[in-house]
Batch of 4 targets.
Target 1
Amino acid sequence: MSIRSHEQVALLTDYDANSAYSEAFRTLYANIRFNWNSEKDRLLTLLITTPASFAGHTAAAANTAIVAAQSGTSVILVDADLREPGLEQRFGVGQHQGLSDLLEEEEITPQKVASCLQQTFIPGLRLLGAGSKSGPAELLHLTRLEAVFSGIRSLLAEETAPAIVIFHSAPVLLGADASILAALVEQTLLVLAKNRTTRAQAKQAQEQLERVHAHLAGVILLDI
């Protein structure tokens, strides 16, 4: 999927609904839905990551969440980039308890997950920010993340609509963060930037994700 725009760091809500940029994300989400039988599995977990840092990576995760919510799907967007979080600022919400706080809880209940979610200005799109303890990725222990996943699943099981949980992570080549998350989600999308992401970076990131048996469902190419 190739997505082109003059400004790849803006939210879809800044664009005309009929723009090529908006249409590209709608097509992307249609492809995600094609690989997801929501009648059989009401919940889909998805990771959006990138080989190396660039601003459009965060926008791609945010815009995928927006178009999913606009299609009627219940969405939880998780900022799992504890190294350089940015989704709370992007959606104009204040810092709040989030993922890093949940990871330090002895018991992660659906009620605790719910208390950390913030409603965005997009109906149906809730944000689980990085939290107040953002920092080194050592917080992302596999067993603690599994408990967070379980808490989110339990919370969404109380709801009737199909739901998607979209995780935004630090770049694959920056550390183990993305690989840990990729091992837990159903699908992973890799964001590449034309003229910025090198062939070597893309190949190395793919190999790293394959080592943890990630389901690499596709690539988003940002033409910037």
Note: The chain has a mean pLDDT of 87.
Target 2
Amino acid sequence: MIVERTDFVTVPVTDVERARVFYEETLGLPKISNGGAWPEFQLGENISLYLMDPTQIGQPFRAPHQAHIALRVADVAETRRDLEQRGVEFEGEILDTGVCHMAFFRDPDGNALMLHRRYAPRD
């Protein structure tokens, strides 16, 4: 199998409108779909985030996601401060791994997200 790219990541939510407000207004992600039951937001150049209430297609809500979706930002500390002013609560302090900075938080349904910035060169 040859994968050309990842088109989108689906995030399960229980309240699509509440999630839309969080991702669009609180996080400030650009919305790329203007209709339908499942809002979609652009994440950088090559992937989007798609909100879906699984009960709308006859499946149970099995979230929250526990594997963090890493959102690359220019400055983790600055972005964290901005989001904290918008009411986002972070889990712990900024983690410096020696390679990157990470700051962990969750959306209104408890799905795991992180701010991320690699600062060390790749081998």
Note: The helical segments are 16-26, 76-85.
Target 3
Amino acid sequence: MTKLLVSTSDTKVRYQSREALPLIIVDSPKCHAVISLYGGQILEFNATGKPPLLWLSPLAIFEQGKAIRGGVPVCAPWFGPYSGPERKGITYPNHGFARTSFWQQTNVTVTQDGDVNITLALGPNELSNAIYPHQFKMKIEFTLSEELAIEFSLENNSIEPIDCEWALHSYFAIDDIATVSVSGLAGCQFMDKTLGNSVATLNGQLTFSQEVDRCFVDGTTTQIINCKTPIKVSGDNCDSVITWNPGALLAATMTDVGSDSYRQFVCVERGATFDKKWQIAPEQRHSATMVLSNLIR
């Protein structure tokens, strides 16, 4: 009989937070994972016998209305500042509302070979109705095995087309940002947010000697994070690649990162941004998958 433990907890118990945000805990022969229903966000993952794949800030804030720093936040249905038509008196949160909404668990299954599949769903709520007045269903499905696969989808249940710009904002655990590089993006154009979204082309590998905030709107299928325990990031139907680390100066101003913790993570994200954003016809559904894994055996 396959040993499997899927249990529930909350952030007050696990992370000593003031608020008790609900968690799903998975411990199987293949991996360990922690998923937050707040934000639809996986916070921890490591394959059995391998180091943690994801970074969760030791200063993370678990509080309604605030995004959790670390794991894989879901930025949707827009990425970065809101740029659509605005309604007077409405505040539009950065990176959309998915990462600060409560998702519902709709499915937990175990395959014959021991993979665990967990599906969460998000539909219209009070927050979304005010800023995104559409009928929709977002889903995120986690496949927990020797690697981590995340499928994100949006179904348009409206009578008119809807847009969705999104990213799975992956924070990866590394030993030291000063020695990390990312390969697989050489020759690709990027928009550099630190330079007013000026456009340039990457030559060679991407390194992180200072703040890096770059969006490769049309990136490549696979990237490798070169560090002590190399990490592979690949995507299907999520052409955009976003790379980020705040660097020392910005990190020192961020209460949920701090002056030293920035050295311990790098973000290599997959999504659909700018002119690659999804345009979904009525009664249609778009989906994409990101797969993350440690390359060490």
Note: The first helix runs from residue 11 to 15.
Target 4
Amino acid sequence: MNKSDKVKSNILEAAGETFVERGFKGTTVREICKRAGVNFAAVHYHFQSKEQLYLAVLKHYQTIVYQNYPPDTGIDKDCSAETRLSAFVERFMFRILGEGQPSWFGKLVAREYADPTQALDDLLSEFFQPSFNILTSIVRELLGNRASEQTVRLCATSIVGQCLHFRHSKAVLSRLFQIENFCKEEVEEIAQHITRFSVKALASYMDGKDAV
């Protein structure tokens, strides 16, 4: 790695850490420069602006996290819908609750749900929509043919909401249950609970109902 690439890498790492901690709006380029040990000109040279740096951070850490937790779940399509949902939820939970750099993309995505930035449209086309399409296809299979598209979307959104609750409410949950960080086993347990809860709910959702 040459000097220029090293500087760029340092900026991406410092920016990723700062954006995760403070969000896009709460982060300043000055703070990123201080963490990276570079001057403002270096950030401008490599990324032109704070907005472009944020996009670069998202793309960089998306690549890293997808190596461990790919959005297509990595499960054979011939597996049951419940197995595919379990894999989807577990990998989603590790993306938003894990520790260290592999979890930074998921945490930034979780922030976008609550406080969107100008990067939202890029995230929508490159991440949100493809990921949501995978989830809705699983939910549609679990609900059956009588379920309308609106019902499928609402049920899929409810599953996402369960997952995000553990990220956005982490400060409250840590005080309620004296948990500083979720360990691997706890993340797996949470994912299994969300899957079981959702599968049971979906199985009974259409009982005795016409498509709504």
Note: Residues 61-205 form a domain with the Tetracycline Repressor; domain 2 fold (CATH 1.10.357.10).
